[in-house]
Amino acid sequence: QLRAQNQVLKKGVVDEQANSASLKEQLKMKDQSLRKMQQEMDSLTFRNQQLAKRVELLQDELALSEAKGKKSKKSAESSSQLSQEQKSVFNEDLQKKIEENERLHILFFEADEQHKRLEAELRTRLEVLEMDAAQHQAVVDSLTRKYTDTIEKLQNDKAKLEIKSQTLEREAKDCRLRTEECQQQLKNLQAALGSRLEESLCIINEKVPFNDTRSNRYNALNVPLHNRRYQLKLRDLAGQALAFVQELVTALLNFHTYTEQKVQIFPVDSATDTISPLNQKFSQYLHENASYVRPLEEGMLHVFESITEDTVTVLETAVKLKAFSEHLASYLGFLRKILPYQLKSLEEECESSLCTAALKARNMELHRDMKRLTAVFEKLHTYVSLLALPSTKPEGLLRTNYNLVFTNIAASLHGFHDILKGISKCYSQKSTLEQDLPTATQKLITTNDCILSSLVALTNGAGKIASFFSNNLDHFTASLSYGSKGEAEFISPLSAECMLQYKKKAVAYMKSLRKPCTDSVPYEEALANRRVLLSSTESREGLAQQVQQSLEKIAKLEQEKEHWMLEAQLAKIKLEKENQRLKNSLSGHLTENIQEHSALPNVAEQKENAERSLREPMKSTSLTSVQSNNTNTCLLKCLLCQATDVESREDLIKTHYMARIAELTSHLQLADSKSVHFHAECRALAKRLSLAEKSKESLAEELKLASQNISRLQASPMLHGDELMTTKRSYEDQLSMMSDHLCSMNETLTKQREEIDTLKMVSK
Predict the structure, then answer these.
(1) Which intervals carry biased composition (Basic and acidic residues) (predicted)?
(2) CA 655, CA 637: separation in Å to the nearest integer?
(3) Confidence of residue 324 (pLDDT cuts 50, 70, 90)
(4) Can you say whether the dihedral through the CA atoms of 16, 22, 25, 27 is positive or negative?
(5) Which of 303, 566, 732, 749 fits 320 for a cystine, CB–CB 3.0-4.6 Å?
């Protein structure tokens, strides 16, 4: 392309050079014609000057002739005829010269004008041509520099390409040699692999009874690749889900409990009047909420515990999802059971005389939201039960549909969050309207605040779990099934269970291969260690039993703790009310006494001023008035002291009972720990006793065999006397050792029985 452009530019430069040369030749010709015209002009001016001089001469001659004519008229008359003829000739000649001069002047002027015009045109054209030539020369120079640079660059590239082509040629030669070698090796490998394939096919046909890759049932038993990072990620996600479910469970428990309290105090307070049978039944059902809500947390905890680093967590092996689905179904049944009562309770509240139009509108909104809440839980239960199908009934769900199930769960969780936000907003407005009622009590306000706080916690927990599920939806739908990807159905749970067993066996086998051979323990030491392990109080079974008992106690204590925390809150509210009422009564009573006390001295002073002039019998009345004044002040002091004594007495009673409860709790914990320890000791001693009895039986059998051998040796005549004595002594030594061991065993057995008896007595 550069070469083609270079040729075009060269052609343009040549054409421009030819044009400039032709223009130069034309300029030369014009210069020549201009010089010729100038020469003609010079000759004409010279001729003109000659003629002018001649005319001047003729005029001088004419003047001389006229002067001579005046002097000599006679001579003039004689020669007048001759001069007339000469004059006419001169005049004609002069006239011709004048005309010719005029014509020459005109031609000269025209030629001069034409020359000037042509010179101006040629000068302008010359300037234009010089400018064009300068531009063309600049273009030519720039193109020359550019093409010289391009030529140098192309020459350098050509040199580099020649070097590269040489290296590529050498590499091509090497590659040809290598390809020839590789082809030779490939032929050899094909021959070797063909022979090995024939040999392997012969071995497979002769030795292998079946091919498990042809059947999907056999493929399901193959252990998949272990992805430790995926298992850790899934366990982390399960831990986060467990924390969110625990928050939801706590919020649901608080919501149902405070709703039960609300039913008891609004619209009719059960402390002052009997509530309706509908609300009584509704309150009774709400009181059972913990038995339906708590299993949700336990089911999620079991799901979290089933996901470990060593197992394969897929939908076919997640058998704990079935239990969680059942717990969710039981809670859904609880919601369905309380829903009609809740709706009827709201309708009954709307029908009461205290309900305003705005409060009725909020109640109807809450009526609709409660129906939507139950419907959302029904959706969640449906999708969770579908996820639990691969581990129980795999034919109920196709592998191509479980991604859609996870997507619908995420959408349902977001809907659950939106519904809870609506319920929280509606309940906030409802509680505000109820506080404005004239019959609103402090207990109702406190209960409404507790319900609002539980709804806020429930809304926050639902939002967290919805966003958590949406953010990790790709991870959930990535690989929650194993087996061939082309299959449309899930693998049967029995095959998945067998696969897990095979995985455990494979892991154990790999561990046994990687485990270094340890030094063998001596037989006597191993026996002693076995006895210690069997008779130890810290055995695995004992510790597991203690842990189970401790977990049961902890669960019971947590239930009691929640119950007593609620009771404490109610008692605290009642105590605040009683303190407020007591303060109000005390302040009223004190103000009355103070008023009486202030009035009595005034009356006494008036009596004293009025009765100063009376007799002494009248002094007794003043004395009685003073005494009454003193009694009133004493009563006032007694009331104040009584109030402070009541508070101090309550504090003393409270501290005494708290100390007593702490002391009894410590004694109870100590007694529990001692009983557990004594029970473990009794179990260990019972194990030791059974082991000692077994060893006693084995030693008795050995003793019997030794005595039989001794009698047989004594009866055999083949042995010599010395040999018989040595064998007899050896057997006697063995018998004495066995008898000593039996005696020691009997002593230890008696001691252990005594210890067991004493421990039983102590534990009782």
Answers:
(1) 605-618
(2) 27
(3) confident
(4) negative
(5) 303
Name which of 299, 316, 317, 324 is nearest 396 in CA terms.
316
Is 750:693 a contact under the CB 8 Å cutoff?
no
**Residues 376/336, Cβ–Cβ less than 8 Å:** no
Question: Is 493 in contact with 394 (CB distance < 8 Å)?
Answer: yes
The two structure tokens encoding residue 715: 């009866």
Residue 398's SS3 state is strand
SS3 720: coil
Q: Which of 418, 321, 362, 625 is nearest to 313 (CA)?
A: 321
CB 473 within 8 A of CB 410: yes
Position 379 pLDDT exceeds 70: yes
DSSP letters spanning 76-121: HHHHHHHHHHHHHHHHHHHHHHHHHHHHHHHHHHHHHHHHHHHHHH
Is residue 358 within 8 Å of 432, Cβ to Cβ?
A: no
Task: List the Cα angle 139/145/151 in 5-degree steps.
Answer: 125
Across the range 19-37, mean pLDDT stands at 84
pLDDT level of residue 187 (50, 70, 90 thresholds): very high
Nearest 5°: the CA angle 172, 175, 181 is 150
Cα dihedral 262/267/271/277 (nearest 10): -90
Q: How confident is the prediction for the chain on average, in pLDDT? A: 76
Q: In this model, does residue 713 exceed pLDDT 70?
A: no
CB atoms within 10 A of CB 277: 8
Is the Cβ–Cβ distance between 431 and 371 less than 8 Å?
Answer: no
User: Which of 462, 459, 456, 457 has the alpha carbon at shortest distance from 428?
Assistant: 456
Asked if residue 714 has pLDDT above 80, the reply is no
Does the structure show a pLDDT above 60 at 176?
Answer: yes
What single-letter DSSP state applies at residue 314? S
Other Cβ atoms within 10 Å of 472 Cβ, number: 19
3-state helix, strand, coil in the chain (%, to 5): 85, 0, 15
Q: What are phi and psi of 489, to 5 degrees?
A: -110, 160
User: Which whole number is the average pLDDT over 557-577?
Assistant: 85
* Token duo for residue 754: 């005594």
The residue behind tokens 């421990």 is 759
Which conformational region is residue 483 in: left (phi greater than 0), alpha (psi within -120 to 50 degrees), or beta? left
Q: Tell me the three state secondary structure of residue 303.
A: helix
CA distance 407 to 600: 85
CB contact at 8 A, 391 and 316: yes
State the Cα–Cα distance between residues 644 and 638, nearest whole angstrom.
10
Phi first, then psi, for residue 398 (nearest 5°) are -85, 150
Name which of 738, 715, 739, 745 is nearest 727 in CA terms: 715
Rounded CA gap, 719 and 594, in Å? 125
Which tokens belong to 446? 């406190």
Quick: pLDDT tens for 511-544: 877 777 666 777 777 777 766 666 554 456 666 7
The tokens 């002027």 sit on which residue?
109
Three-state DSSP at 488 gives coil
What is the pTM (predicted TM-score) of this model? Answer: 0.42
Q: Please report, for the chain, the start and end positions of each structural domain, with discontinuous segments joined by +.
A: 225-480
The H or E element containing residue 709 is helix 619-715
Q: How far apart are the first and last CA of the chain?
A: 112
Q: What is the pLDDT of residues 415-454, one digit of tens each?
A: 989 998 988 888 888 888 888 777 778 888 888 888 888 8
